[in-house]
Amino acid sequence: MSDSDLQSRLAPVLGRVPSGVFILVAGDGSGRRTGLLTSWVQQASFEPPQVTIAVNRSRYLIDWLKDGSPVTLNQVPKGDNLLFRHFGKGFDPDANAFDGIAVIPANNGLVALSSALATMEGTVCGQMDAGDHRILLVTITNAIAHKDPTQFEPFVHLRKNGFSY
């Protein structure tokens, strides 16, 4: 079986692995901050509470995400177009990624997005390369529910092709 045959069979199956949609917020440590649409987030531990986040290694934001770096993860609501489109386009390092987006201060010095379902604050505590992405391990230090958690309807992403966004 050729690699292209395997890829053509695997692509539609791999793309159907569901993942939540989040806006990852990070800073460079000198005052710049940005947001990035990410959908490969998964709970990794109960105690301490931890999640993993996959970030494409070609993104400049990856250089900002060192062990000890604060982050916020903002859960996008089902049917949301504002956050998905706004952060899906990407931003240059010096651009104001939050222009027109309602934010509140987070305890870790970053921002939480008010129109998200919830925001988790955390600290990067480990990472590893995984092909074209880097997997970050983040310890969650705080959570803000912007909506009633019993009424959450998170945005779940399914792709047609497991080899592209």
Report on the biggest sheet. Answer: 7 strands, antiparallel
CATH superfamily: Electron Transport, Fmn-binding Protein, Chain A
Number of strands: 11
Residues in helix, %: 10-25%
Q: How much strand content do the residues show?
A: 35-45%
CATH class: Mainly Beta
In terms of per-residue confidence, which ranges show pLDDT below 50 for 5 or more consecutive residues? none
Shape: globular
Summed up, the domain count is 1
Mean pLDDT: 93
Radius of gyration: 16 Å
User: End-to-end span in angstroms?
Assistant: 26 Å
CATH architecture label: Roll
CATH topology, anyone?
Pnp Oxidase, Chain A
What is the helix tally? 2
Give the strand order, joined by hyphens, for the main sheet: 3-2-6-9-10-5-4
Order of helices and strands: HEEEEEEHEEEEE
Structural class: mainly beta
Topology:
Layout: H1 3-14, E1 19-20, E2 22-27, E3 33-38, E4 41-45, E5 50-56, E6 70-75, H2 82-88, E7 103-105, E8 111-113, E9 118-130, E10 133-145, E11 156-157
Antiparallel strand pairs: 1-11, 2-3, 2-6, 4-5, 5-10, 6-9, 7-8, 9-10
